[in-house]
Write a structure and sequence with these properties.
- The protein has five helices and nine strands.
- It has 219 residues and is α+β, with helices and mostly antiparallel strands.
- Strands 1, 2, 3, 4, 5, 6, 7, 8 and 9 form a nine-stranded antiparallel beta sheet that branches.
- The structure holds a DNA duplex (13 and 13 nucleotides).
Amino acid sequence: MHGEIYASGWMNRLARGFYERDPLDVAPDLLNKLLVVSAGPDRLVARIVEVEAYRGSEDPASHAYRGSTPRNATMFGPPGHLYVYFTYGMHHCANVVCWPPGRAGAVLLRAAAPLSGLEAMRRARAREIGDRELLNGPAKLCKALGLTRQADGIDLVSGASGVWVGDDGVEPPADPAVGVRVGIRNGTELPWRWWVRGDVHVSRPLREIHSSWSASLRA
DNA sequence: CTTTGGATCGTCT
DNA sequence: GACGATCCAAAGG
């Protein structure tokens, strides 16, 4: 057990306006932000190092592509809320909702670096694993932080549920790595995955796409 | 190191 | 009835 302590200890909760934008803009801005989950006596903190953008009706890979359903309803609500879904009969994945109410969009939280509450995370994972494997995948992240379908709809901006995203002054990478999204069947060519280049906590090493042409694929 | 297949059930067609 | 915005263990190079 050797978790680092995040630099200064202070952090600001992100405001509604941060989320009320195009997921393509929110996603890279979330890199290096802090995900905070209050779990009873434990305060779990992790630095986001990998994300993917999903653009609702304009994105064939998005759960919201074909409109609102009971499952994805949160994505159609106000920005700054948590969208948690259940998949493969056993896994949960967490997103932050973007864009104004009525327009579905989200950023999937794919990986993070654990900063605090590592023992609680390890307990939740119920496996003997190192720090780097605690949060290096969207379903692993949810398992370690205790995020289930019950957390769907939580308002990250108020922080009233003990779950929020904070800024401790560490800037997003000026030149993040960009690549295609993982595990989808449609929209596989869209370079809408971002990660902190070289960070050992990412879910897995995939090919980077050169940034010059990724900007042209906003449809 | 990479590849492959099984697990497992809520959701939508 | 089919299929996941995944993970893991086992097998192969």
